[in-house]
C-alpha cells in the first residue's frame, strides 16, 4: 500500500484571501503553483510528509454549487489557548456558527467564505497533532466506510465504534482522520475534500485501480483533462488521487 492522505482542498471564491486567513490561523507558509491556486504548509516542510496534512485552495467561479461533507478541527493546549484562538479568529474575519451543536465545550465557527470548522477544547488525544487536530468526514456508517479507507490509505485505525472511526498515520504523527456518524439532516456541507497521493507518484494508475477494486467509482465534477483522478468512496464522498502535474 503506497497511498497517503496529503492535503485537504478548499474551493474558494478568492483563494489568495482565504489562503491568507488560514495561513494566519495555522502559522503556516503560503505559496502558489499557478494562478487561482494557493498552497499552505508548515514553514520548512518537505511535502509530502505525514506530520502535516496540508491545505490547497483552488479558485472556482461558483463555490456554492460544490458541496462536500468534510471539515477540519483545530487543536488547543489549554482553556486559555482556546479562548485566545477564538478571539484571534474573530479578528481575522471568522464568525461563530450555529449548526445545532447546542452547549458544547468546543466552538463552531465559519471562515470568511462560510466554511464551518471547530476549535476544540484541550484534549489529550490531540496534544501532538499540530494546529489541525482532525480532518472530519460526515458519514452514515463509520464501520462500513473505514473498511474502505482503512484499506485505501497507509493509516492505522485507532478507534472504531458505531459512531466514529479514527485513523492516523502509521508513523504516529500529524492529525487524525475521523469518520463521524451524522444524520442527513445534521450534515453541514462544506467546500472541502480530501486529496491522496501515491508514493511514488508514478503509481497513480495502479492505485486508482486498487481503489476501484475496494469500491471507489470514478466521478465527473467537470474537471476536464487534468493530472489528478476524481473518485467517490462507497458513500459518495468525492476525493482526488493526485498525479504529477
TrEMBL record:
It comes from the Bacteria. Pfam families: Glyoxalase_6. Residues 7-119, 135-242 form the Glyoxalase-like domain. InterPro entries: Glyas_Bleomycin-R_OHBP_Dase (IPR029068), Glyoxalase_6 (IPR041581). PANTHER family: CONSERVED PROTEIN, HYPOTHETICAL FUSION PROTEIN. This is VOC family protein. It comes from Streptomyces phaeoluteigriseus.
Amino acid at each position: 500500500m503506497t497511498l497517503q492522505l496529503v492535503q485537504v482542498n478548499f474551493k474558494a471564491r478568492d483563494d489568495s484571501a482565504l489562503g491568507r486567513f488560514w495561513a494566519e490561523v495555522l502559522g503556516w507558509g503560503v505559496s502558489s503553483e499557478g494562478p487561482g491556486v494557493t498552497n499552505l504548509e508548515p514553514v520548512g516542510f518537505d511535502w509530502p510528509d505525514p506530520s502535516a496534512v496540508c491545505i490547497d485552495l483552488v479558485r472556482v467561479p461558483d463555490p456554492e454549487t460544490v458541496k462536500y461533507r468534510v471539515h477540519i478541527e483545530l487543536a488547543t493546549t489549554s482553556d486559555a489557548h482556546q479562548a485566545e484562538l477564538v478571539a484571534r479568529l474573530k479578528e481575522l474575519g471568522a464568525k461563530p456558527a450555529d449548526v445545532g451543536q447546542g452547549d458544547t465545550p468546543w466552538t463552531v465557527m465559519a471562515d470568511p467564505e462560510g466554511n464551518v470548522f471547530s476549535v476544540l477544547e484541550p484534549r489529550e488525544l490531540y496534544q501532538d497533532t499540530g494546529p489541525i487536530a482532525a480532518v472530519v468526514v460526515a458519514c452514515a456508517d463509520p464501520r462500513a466506510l473505514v473498511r474502505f479507507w482503512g484499506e485505501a490509505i497507509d493509516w492505522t485505525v485507532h478507534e472504531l465504534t458505531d459512531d466514529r472511526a479514527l485513523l492516523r498515520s502509521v508513523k504516529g504523527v500529524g492529525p487524525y482522520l475521523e469518520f463521524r456518524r451524522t444524520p442527513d439532516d445534521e450534515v453541514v456541507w462544506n467546500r472541502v475534500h480530501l486529496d491522496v497521493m501515491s508514493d511514488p507518484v508514478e503509481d497513480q494508475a495502479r492505485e486508482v485501480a486498487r481503489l476501484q477494486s475496494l469500491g471507489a467509482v470514478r466521478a465527473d465534477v467537470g474537471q476536464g483533462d487534468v493530472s489528478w483522478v476524481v473518485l467517490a468512496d462507497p458513500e459518495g464522498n468525492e476525493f482526488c488521487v493526485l498525479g504529477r502535474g
